[in-house]
Amino acid sequence: MLKKTLAGIGAGALLFGLSACGGGDDGDGGDGLIVGFAQVGAESAWRTANTDSVKAAAEADDRIAELKFVDGQQEQDRQIEAVRNFITQQVDVIVLAPVVETGWTDVLQEAEDAGIPVVLADRGVEAADEDLYVTRLGSDFTEEGRKAGQWTVETFADDADGTRILELQGTTGSAPANDRKTGFFEVLDAEGLDYELVDSQSGDFTAENGKSVMETFVTTHGLDGIDLLYAHNDEMGLGAIQAIEEAGFEPGVDIQIIIVDGSAAGFQAGVDGKLNYIVECNPAFGAQLMDVVVQVEAGESVEKFTPVEEGVFTADQFEAELPNRQF
Ligand code: AHR
């Protein structure tokens, strides 16, 4: 086996390492696989946990010789450059966590032309590009949205005045932002909930933007009469909680709050009574991803999409669950 390395390389620096990196054997030959991983960024605790999970799994897996890691810093151009560099380096498998759903056709076609299989991790790409990757392992974001929608319907079914909702969306054009929205409103509409979407803006999955968008919501609409904030991830929800408190309101009481992810910080806010429902998004699929990578490189047949296991948590479960949170 080759000496295992976990290369954290800036996208622009990748080209300098070309001569050192050739494709490895399939694991049976003893060399192990060389895998390129173009990650979204480091925008959230979820993302950091996901990166840690993938790196640790690659390091522990004798079938993987090297994981070349690139942090795309939430920029598609950086991820495209990283994938192109992985192609030039002739890695065995490319793992891509696409920051947004569109704009991948050319580079995915280049990977296919080079005979390098692409595995999507976490986020998906638009349906038109479905033939250009082998498989996706990650969350069913639409189902996450449905879970949030189901709780909303059950919680506000008797709200005679109609339910007034604010939405903090994730990164514009990303699969989780698109699908969490779709699933949520699909259930509200199907169940006939009387609601009004008062405002919906992107907070780019960060606490800073979640807070500033919530400040704008408060300025524009006030919070009197707003029933629910649906935040597409923990960071935006936590940022919004700060903004709500600074505006003199009690998060979790004056306005109910749903977050998606389930970090320890999110659960702690729940234990503190500042939010009301958590839809889990599970980042710890590194070991499963390595299995998929090996299968794909070996040409084995795999499902087009493998969802990871995820739960939901109500307020009465927050305290007991908090010690179990891994990120
Ligand atoms: O793609 C998964 C999402 O990306 C997580 O919900 C969010 O926290 C992260 O930024």
Task: Walk me through what this model shows.
The protein has helices spanning 45-60, 76-88, 105-113, 141-156, 175-190, 207-221, 234-246, 264-271, 286-297, 318-321, and strands spanning 5-8, 33-39, 64-71, 93-96, 118-121, 135-138, 163-169, 195-202, 228-231, 256-261, 277-280, 305-307, 312-314. With 327 residues, the chain is α/β, with parallel strands linked by helices. The chain folds into 2 domains: 4-137 and 283-307, 3-Layer(aba) Sandwich (Rossmann fold), CATH 3.40.50.2300; 141-281, Rossmann fold. The protein has a 7-stranded parallel beta sheet, with helices on both faces. Helix 5 links the parallel strand 7 (163-169) and strand 8 (195-202). Bound molecules: alpha-L-arabinofuranose.
Short description:
Helices cover 37% and strands 20% of the residues.
Lateral strand order in the biggest sheet: 1-3-2-4-5-6-12
Number of helices: 10
Distance between the termini: 32 Å
Low-pLDDT stretches are 8-23, 25-29
What is the SS-derived class?
alpha/beta
Following the backbone from N to C, one meets helices and strands in this order, namely EEHEHEHEEHEHEHEHEHEHEEH
**CATH structural architecture of the largest domain:** 3-Layer(aba) Sandwich
How many individual β-strands? 13
Helix content: 25-40%
Tally of separate domains:
2
Can you tell me the CATH class of the largest domain?
Alpha Beta
Bound molecules: alpha-L-arabinofuranose
Instruction: Tell me the radius of gyration.
Output: 21 Å
CATH level-4 homologous superfamily of the largest domain: Response regulator
- Tell me the CATH topology of the largest domain: Rossmann fold
Mean pLDDT comes to: 93
For the biggest sheet, the summary is:
7 strands, parallel
Note the overall shape: elongated
Percent of residues in β-strands: 15-25%
